[in-house]
Structure formats: C-alpha cells, structure tokens
Amino acid sequence: MFPFLAFGHFNAFVQLSNKLFYHGVSITFLSAASNIPRIKSTLNLNPAITVIPLHLPNGITSTAELPPHLAGKLILAIDLTQSHVKSLLLELKPHYVFLDFAQNWLPKLASELEIKSVRFVSFSAISDSCINVPSRLAGVEGRNITFDDLKKPPPGYPKKSNISLKAFEAMDLMFLFKRFGEKNLTVFRSCKEIEEPYLDYIEKQFGKLKFLNDDQIKEVASGLELTGLPFVLVLNFPSNLSAKAELERALPKEFLERVKNRGLQQLMLKHSSVGCHLGHGGFNSVVEALTSDCELVLLPFKADQFFNAKLIAKDLEAGIEGNRSEDGNFKKEDILKAVKTIMVEDDKEPGKHIKENHMKWKEFLSNKGIQNKFITDLVAQLKSIA
Questions:
Q1: Domain total for the chain?
Q2: Which of 260, 288, 301, 339 holds its CA 20 to 30 A away from the CA of 280?
Q3: 121 and 224: one domain?
Q4: What is the mean pLDDT of the chain?
Q5: Which family does it belong to (predicted)?
C-alpha cells in the first residue's frame, strides 16, 4: 500500500488494508517516517500488517506540513523515492502494489519486477470518469487536452448525467493529466448502487492544495451567521502561520463577539445537536456525512470535490451544492440559502426530498453485509488474476 501523503488518502488506504487483512491478505504499508505512528494507530495490530518508512528529502512528510505554494513539491518528493521503493519491492516480492494518483512511475517499475499494480481511487468514480479515461489523456488523437475540453463531459458520457464544469472548476483540473500512468487494475472506493453510470462508462473506456482566501472566509462566516442557527466553523490555515492571528485577520469585524454563544460545548458533544455539515466535498467527508444524520451542504474547491458535489446534489439528490459564479466566487446569501433549505425549510421541497434521500443512502452505506460483500468480491478478483 503506497498512498499519497495526505491524511484523507492515508485513511482510505488504511480502511481498505484492515478489511483485506480480515480476508487473509498480508499487507505492507509505505509512508514517510513521521506518518508511521498515526498510520499504526488505525491499522490492525498484527504481524500480517507491517509499516515501512520511506526516505523523503528535507523532512517532507505530508500536505499538512507544507504551505500551499509548496504542495506540488510533495509529488516531486514522492518521485525521488523510486530507488527505495524498487529495493523494497525486490525484497518483499508482493503479488500487488496498490498506488495512488501521484506515483505515475510505479506501474512500469512494478511490471519490470513482474508485480501487478492497482490504482486505488480513494475519491468518487464520477471524478475519474471525467478525468482518467483514454479520450482525456494527453497526446490522444495527436493533441493535448484543452481547457474547453474539460468544461464538458468526454465523448460517450452517460446521457442521463448533466455534468458540466464552470471555468474555475475546469482550470483546477488541468494539472492532473500528466500524473496517471499505466496499471493492471483500478479499484474504486464506490459501488454501482451509487455510481453505476460512471463506473460502467469507465469500464467501457478501457496538484496544488487550496485554501479559502480572506474574502471567501468572510462570506462563509457571514452566511452562517445569517442563518441564526448554532454552528461550529473549522478553518484550516497553512502550518507556517499563526492560526490565531490568521483567524482574527480573516473573519468579519467583531464576528467572534457576535456569535460567541452559538457553539456551546455541550451542544457540540451531543450528536443530535449537529444537524448540518458544510464542507469542501472531499470524498471521505462526504461518506462520513452520508452515514450520519448530518445534512450536507457542499462548497467544493479542487479536483474531485467538484464532481463529488454534483454526485451528491444532482445524481443522488442527498445534499445541496452552494451556488457559485463562473469564476468560483460566492456570497454569504448563497450560504444562507443552502443551509436554510435543509435546516429550516426541510418540511417542504426540495429540503424534504433531500432529507429522505439522505436517510436512504445512510441505511445502504451502514449495511455491514453489503460492505463485506464488496471486499469479498475484490479479494476474489485479485486472486483470479494474481
């Protein structure tokens, strides 16, 4: 297992590892040394699962430790582990190596060692169906993918889908088209019950981190304030900056004073007091929200988040995507409208319908028998081609 060096990717690979372990699969996990304690704390403690530290340059370990303008260097740092990874593969001789989006060199290396490679997609299938299909790859038909190409679905896309991207969404995806390489198998953290059109489409066909700018933070905060509801606002600032100073600078004037009684600790600690999750639409967060009673308001900012938001809001109709302009800007009124729809006006449409769909998918995703069958089927497929 070799995930990208970001906590959301760690978690997806850890969850898969734990489930494969219960089906008799031996696991070796690769990551930067300082990530090992966190990974070990969530992996099953068993001799069949080992964790090996990789030697990354300059102490680089994860996206959490880098400012936004250096996030791209993390992929370059991963590229520099090739010789170390090769020596480990020669020693371990695994049947498969599971990789993430960033290691486009690994499938070829594994093939030379007669090891099969599996790209584990920890985000949604709808994202991959728009990004990583032959018609999207650089150099296809003698030309590279263009900005205008990305604003519309690829050829042959499911007719029932109304997916289209705004300018700011398409621009964010341009960097992805040089990262995907060849592989023997692709595994999705999804299922046909939720994403059948996109999984079927993919089957037939074969970066930079973002932080809210100050104006966007003010609009989110003001929009939540306008709802009149209790809320918890969690903001992530670059690790090299003072979070307290950034918070005071970025939030609207006197905002903390005006809302200081809205987020009482006793309410936060009771699950029933949390009714809505407003987030960026990362797939881990989306799945966690769907399996809880928290309604979903999505405000995506990069890559697969755009597609996750459309999957939840348009295809599954189990949440709301905040309104955005063509350049990605939004206003506090957009936040207010989205939250009110499912928190205040949930007794009428569309809030009522959204809430009913959310409960339907919560029941499906919480069914342990269904989840176990997914892993059983995966193990059977891996054995059949090993």
A1: 2
A2: 260
A3: no
A4: 78
A5: Belongs to the UDP-glycosyltransferase family.
